[in-house]
Amino acid sequence: MMGFGGLAGAQSMHILSVPAAAAAAVILFSGLFHLFIYDRDRRHRQNLTFALTCVVFSLYGIACAGLYNSTSVAEGMAWQRAQMYLLFLSMIFFLWFVHDFTQMVPPKALWFFTIVGVVCLSVGYLYTGDLILSLSRPLIKTKNLPFGITAVYYEAELGPVMLAANLAGLICMAYILFVGFRFYKVGPKKKARFLALALFIMFSCVTSDIFVSLGMSPLPYTLEYGFLAITAFMTGYAVDQVVKASFAQEQLKQNEERYQVLADNAGFTMWTADLDLRLTHISPSIETLTGFTPEEALAMGFDEILTPESASLGMTVLKTQQALELENPGRSPGSVQFEVQIKRKNGPPFWAENTGAFLRDGSGVPIGVVGLTRDISSQKAAEEERLFIQRAVESSSDAIAMCDADFVHFYHNEAFANLFGYRWPKDLVEAGGLLSIFADPRQGDEAATGLIEQGSWTGEVMTRSNRGRHILTDLRANVVSDKFGNLLGLIGIYTDITEKIAVTKALKGSEERYRLVAENTNDVIWTTDLNLKWTYVSPSVFRMRGYTPEEVLQQDFSEVLTRESTQDVLHIFTEELEKELTDPEPEPRSIVLDMEFLKRDGGTVWSESACSFMRDDDGQVFGILGISRDITERRKAEEDRLKLEERLQQAQKLEAMGTLAGGVAHDFNNLLMGIQGNLSLMLLKLEPSNPLYGRIKNIEQHIKNATGLTRQLLGFARSGKYQVTAANLNDLVSRTSSMFGRTRKEIRIKENLQADAWPVEVDHGQIEQVLLNLLVNAWQAMSGGGIIYIRSENVVLDQRFASSYGIPPGKYVRLSVTDTGSGMSPEVRKRVFDPFFTTKEISRGTGLGLASAYGIIQNHGGVINVYSQEGQGATFNIYLPASSKDVMEEIEPEAKVVHGTETILLIDDEEVIITTGEEILRALGYQVFVARSPHEALEIFRDQAPKIDLVIMDMIMPEMQGIELYDHLTEIRPDVRVLLSSGYSLNGQASSIIEKGCDGFIQKPFNLEELSQKIREILD
């Protein structure tokens, strides 16, 4: 066989080839075993590198068996060259195995010897001839083996290149022995022993083969059997580790349940990770700590759980520990602690303390990391608080000193040193301690007694510095104890008030003068800081708001003003303060605000407040000064004035439009009267069976409809009531709503009428028209159907409510009509009673309905108003004055023509009315005088007064008004009977004439039946 010195060969070596081949087979099987172990657990790379080494060892054994079976010199030389290549490969792979097994081969050494091995292989492959193997020596050698066996083999002499390569191999072998020796000293003993035995066998075999190569040993070459022994020892170690791992797995399985309970209920979070810090397990407490479930945490990277700075710190700690492990395998510190910031699923990161250590396999090699994480947010906060307090004490402008539990001074800040002159605590201790700074020892004793008895003491004390300077200070001293009440020490805070007292005395006189002014003025003087916190309020606030100054100083700004005023004032003050702070040279100025203050009794009071910013000696704004004067009565008077102006403007607008509407209605009624008169005459001459009779009656119906429109106009124009009688409003409501409900099946009307409703004096037709207008308005507001609620009730209006509408207080009947429709916007609600204003389509309304309802109710001495919000329907309320008269039962007159024979004087300035009227009266059987002007009428009446039984006169005529004409008629004949006829309604002059004794009123246009019955009603 061949070591690093040569190659053995023979012509008949079949017996020796058998153990070499057997050894190769065993080594190959061991390599496969190590490869299997590596496949099961890839954390231990030494199993892979040793498996590769075993493959090379096995190939070397096969090369030896081939050499023993070679039958020619050429064949033997080929196997010898193959052995050389395999020896260098075995050196490279065995070195890598030792590196993985011990973790003690530095990367530089590893790569150096690897490159050397590769160079040796390359040289052996590229060069041939005597440089590699020299044939100058005999090729055949004979060895006598035990049991009488003789071995004859070939051996070529090594060339100079191969000698140099073998020397490099010996150096590599020596380095491997050095690493093994170091590992034996510092590594795990059992693991080191296995490696030491393997290296000892290799060293022995190499040494033996060197002696055989030099001819100094009768033994054959044994390296292939040394490879077998190395393989056996390392395989034995691997088996031992597999057995231990199986035993550990069983132990782990037995403890798994207890570990799981501990991990699930621990106050900290337990976790494991691989050497790349990828989490492999984490306890459920992670969800309490961070909000992430264990599954979410395992799916996250290390840098996703920690803040970037903490993730970087964690990697640095791991690398440091790995470096220590390389320097001292198995002997690095057991654990390491460091603080990190961990992210929360919902919330800011928090501070935690990590305690980590390596997880190791059975041989002590790190295979991962195990750690405990504990929330230390509260500790960090406490530490930060402690540091903050320490820095606050050190930077405080007040002099602060501390004593321990034995009253020995041990600390004071820089302000204390500057004030009293003692630079270091020991200086004050040597001078007699803290009591020595009291100018009057009795004050020191008083403070000490107060501390002992009460735990604190506050007062003004005269102190002195180490130079004898007297300093008046405000001392605040307290005892410091732990949570169990044990005394820890004392702390004293000294504030130099020498200058403050002097300034205070100087200001006291001026403050007294200002106080007298503030306390005796009706205006409220107040100051605030820049956060609008009250700093002073004069006593006059009690007269304005009912609160004492002390109470106001405890109130928030929003508790003093109404919400609207608070918002306005905050906005204005913020803007003004920004101007003050940004203007490089601000000029003193003031602003005047109207502010609504809250009173103790729940009311409010308006004030006019003059406000300005207050500045210190450096010109810096530090507060606000205000003087507030009660302007409630002034505002109320102003509001009343504006309301009256608005009401006056509305009234003037309505009056102007009413005058126009009334004139139009009057003239239109006169036109209708001419048409109606002619129709009545035609009907007198036609039989009902005549085809034209129906058409004429149809025209009459259209005239009635047109009359309804003129009544709407006259109602809006407030041009009077037609016929006023005491009525039960409920009867009018029921009749109108019943009629309306029958024609509107998509709505429901619900009535809630007070049974004993007071009577009201109204024109039935007009009130029914108002109700109908309100019902139509409600129906149109509910396009998809709905409910209309009608309610009546007796109410007594007080002076406050009544005066707001310009009506007298007293008894009223309120009628409310509520719909469930779309409601009104504030803009629509403001104009809802304006004439010709409508939100409906042109075909659905004229805009006169609500306007005429407003005029009619006003003309009846009542009130109509509306309450509505968009999307919440609307409620119209009508207030009609209650009457003491009894309700008279209505009797419907019979619709027939009544004739007569008396003499009638007809007075009108319209020719068409004179013509048709005369003809109608004559057709009814009366004798008729006609007059086309008041003067003509008086002339006729003077001549024919005894003959004239009735005067029918227009109310509005040129030359003379109706009331004046009536007076002249009654002067001529006081018992004259007069029937007023007008296109206007019963209002104004007509009402005055009726009150004077006029016998009746009929509104144009009227038909034959109405006129005939009215005449007979007066004459009979």
Automatic annotation (TrEMBL):
Q: Where is the PAS domain?
A: 255-327, 510-580
EC top class, in one word? transferase
Q: Which GO molecular function, any one, fits this protein according to its record?
A: phosphorelay sensor kinase activity
The catalytic activity of this protein is classed by the Enzyme Commission as 2.7.13.3
User: Can you tell me which residues the record assigns to a coiled coil?
Assistant: 627-657
UniProt cross-references to NCBIfam families, sorted A to Z: sensory_box
Q: Does the keyword Glycosyltransferase apply?
A: no
Sequence ranges assigned to domain Response regulatory in this UniProt record: 903-1019
Which InterPro entries does the UniProt record give? CheY-like_superfamily, HATPase_C_sf, HATPase_dom, His_kinase_dom, HisK_dim/P_dom, HisK_dim/P_sf, PAC, PAS
Q: Which UniProt keywords apply?
A: Coiled coil, Kinase, Membrane, Phosphoprotein, Transferase, Transmembrane, Transmembrane helix
Q: At which residues is 4-aspartylphosphate found?
A: 954
Q: What name does UniProt use for this protein?
A: histidine kinase
Membrane-crossing residues? 20-38, 50-70, 82-98, 110-128, 163-184, 196-219
Occurrences of domain PAC (ranges): 336-388, 457-509, 591-643
**Annotated ranges, domain Histidine kinase:** 663-884
Q: Which reaction does it catalyse?
A: ATP + protein L-histidine = ADP + protein N-phospho-L-histidine
